[in-house]
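Students often ask why inverse folding is considered easier than folding. One informal answer: many sequences map to the same fold, so there is more than one right answer. In these notes we will look at a single instance of the problem. The structure comes first.
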C-alpha cells in the first residue's frame, strides 16, 4: 500500500487537470459519478486493442484470455470485499449495469415469494432506485411498505426502525450511506437485527464504497449492491452480491445465451448463479475495467484518505455556514463528505447553473430522492460531494463561486 500523497493521487485522474475558459475544473459531483484514474482508462484501451473477444464459449486464444480476465476480475472484487473466492463464499457476485439493475433483479426474484399482507421496511432517505422497485413489487404481490423517516439531524432512529418489524416483515432494504444527507447508517447492527428476525436484507452501498472498502463478509447481508461508475470504474457496470441459496431460488431475470443449462423444443433448464443472471454478452470490458478500479483502490491508504475527506467536509461546512441564508441538511457525526444545502436568496437550480460559470460542478435537484425532499420541506437542494482526489482549493473555489452567485443575483 502506498502512502497517501493527495497531489499524486489527484494527478492520476486526467480530467481533473482540464481548464475551461482559463478556470480549473472543480469537480464536486462525485455523489452522481466519480472520475476515472488513468489505469482504468488504460485497461479499457488494452482490452479493445489486444484482447477483444466474446467470453465463455470460445476456444480460441483471445476468447480464453478475455474469459480469464473477466472471471479473474470477479474473483478479485469478491476478495476485496471480504468474500472468499472460487465458490468458497456464501455469496455470489453478479455483474449488472449498476445498483438500479441489481435492486430490480432482486425485486423480480422475490415476486413469487412475497404474498398479500407481507411487509417491506424502507427508509425515506432511499434513492429512487431503492424505492420504486419495492413499490412495484408491493403492487404486484399485495405486500405493504412501512417507511421510516430520518430524524432532524439526518440520522435514523434505530428504535423506531426496529419497532416497525412484525411477524409479517419479510424484507428490510436500506441505504448504507445517504446520497443527500451523507448519513452513514449502522448497517451492521441493522443487518444483524433483521437476520435475527429472519428478514431478508438488501443494502444499497452505492455511496459507501467510494469512500473506502466495505467488508461484506463481516457485514453478511443477504444482498449488497453498488454501481461501478461511482467507485472510479466505467459506467454501465455494477455488482449484486447475493446469498447463493436465495439467488438460486429466483427465476431468471433475463433469458438467452450463457445462462442456460439445456435448451430443447420441450423446454429449457437454467444454470445456477452467477451465470443464471448474466444472459447474453455482458459488458466484458466494463467488468474487467471495474476490477482494475478495485486494484487502484487497493493501493490507497484509506485511513489517511478518510482523514482527508473528513477535513474537506469540516472545511466546507464551516465556510458554508458563514453564508447568509444558508441551511445545510444532514448533520450526523461521522457522515460521508456530502453537503446538501439551500440558500433562501436563490433556487438550487440557479445556484448550480451560475456556479458552473466558475467551472465548479455541483449537483442540484431532488437527487432521485423526492420522498426525502418532501420530508425536508424543500423541492430541491444544491449538493457538493467530495472524493479523496478533491482538495482544499476545491472547497475555496466552491465558497468563492457561491459568493459570486450571490453578487450576481443581488
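Output (designed amino acids):
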Amino acid at each position: 500500500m502506498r502512502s497517501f500523497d493527495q497531489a499524486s493521487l489527484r494527478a492520476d485522474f486526467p480530467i481533473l487537470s482540464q481548464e475551461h475558459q482559463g478556470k480549473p475544473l472543480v469537480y464536486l459531483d462525485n455523489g452522481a459519478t466519480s472520475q476515472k484514474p488513468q489505469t482504468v482508462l488504460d485497461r479499457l484501451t488494452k482490452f479493445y486493442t489486444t484482447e477483444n473477444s466474446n467470453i465463455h464459449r470460445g476456444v480460441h486464444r483471445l476468447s480464453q484470455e478475455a474469459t480469464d480476465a473477466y472471471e479473474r476480475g470477479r474473483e478479485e472484487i469478491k476478495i476485496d470485499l471480504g468474500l472468499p473466492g472460487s465458490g468458497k463464499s456464501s455469496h455470489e457476485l453478479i455483474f449488472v449495469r449498476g445498483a438500479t439493475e441489481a435492486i430490480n433483479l432482486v425485486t423480480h426474484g422475490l415476486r413469487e415469494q412475497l404474498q398479500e399482507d407481507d411487509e417491506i421496511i424502507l427508509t425515506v432517505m432511499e434513492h429512487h432506485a431503492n424505492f420504486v422497485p419495492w413499490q412495484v413489487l408491493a403492487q404486484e404481490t399485495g405486500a405493504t411498505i412501512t417507511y421510516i423517516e430520518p430524524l432532524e439531524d439526518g440520522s435514523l432512529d434505530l428504535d423506531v426502525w426496529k419497532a416497525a418489524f412484525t411477524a409479517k416483515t419479510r424484507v428490510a432494504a436500506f441505504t448504507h450511506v445517504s446520497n443527500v444527507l451523507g448519513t452513514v447508517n449502522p448497517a451492521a447492527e441493522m443487518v444483524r437485527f433483521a437476520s435475527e428476525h429472519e428478514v431478508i436484507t438488501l443494502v444499497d452501498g452505492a455511496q459507501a464504497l467510494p469512500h473506502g472498502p466495505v467488508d461484506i463478509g463481516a457485514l453478511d447481508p443477504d444482498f449488497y449492491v453498488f454501481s461501478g461508475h461511482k467507485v472510479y470504474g466505467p459506467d454501465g457496470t455494477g455488482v449484486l452480491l447475493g446469498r447463493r441459496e436465495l439467488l438460486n431460488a429466483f427465476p431468471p431475470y433475463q433469458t438467452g445465451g450463457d445462462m442456460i443449462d439445456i435448451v430443447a423444443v420441450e423446454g429449457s433448464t437454467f444454470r445456477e448463479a452467477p451465470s443464471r443472471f448474466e444472459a447474453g454478452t455482458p459488458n466484458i470490458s466494463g467488468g474487467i475495467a471495474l476490477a482494475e478500479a478495485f486494484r487502484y483502490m487497493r493501493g490507497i491508504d484509506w485511513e489517511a484518505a478518510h482523514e482527508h475527506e473528513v477535513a474537506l467536509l469540516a472545511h466546507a461546512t464551516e465556510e458554508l455556514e458563514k453564508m447568509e441564508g444558508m441551511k445545510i441538511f444532514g448533520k450526523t457525526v461521522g457522515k460521508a463528505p456530502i453537503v446538501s444545502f439551500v440558500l433562501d436568496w436563490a433556487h438550487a437550480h440557479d445556484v448550480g447553473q451560475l456556479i458552473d460559470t466558475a467551472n465548479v460542478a455541483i449537483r442540484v435537484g431532488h437527487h432521485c430522492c423526492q420522498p426525502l425532499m418532501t420530508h425536508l420541506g424543500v423541492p430541491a437542494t444544491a449538493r457538493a460531494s467530495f472524493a479523496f482526489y478533491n482538495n482544499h482549493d476545491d472547497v475555496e473555489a466552491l465558497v468563492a463561486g457561491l459568493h459570486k452567485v450571490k453578487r450576481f443575483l443581488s
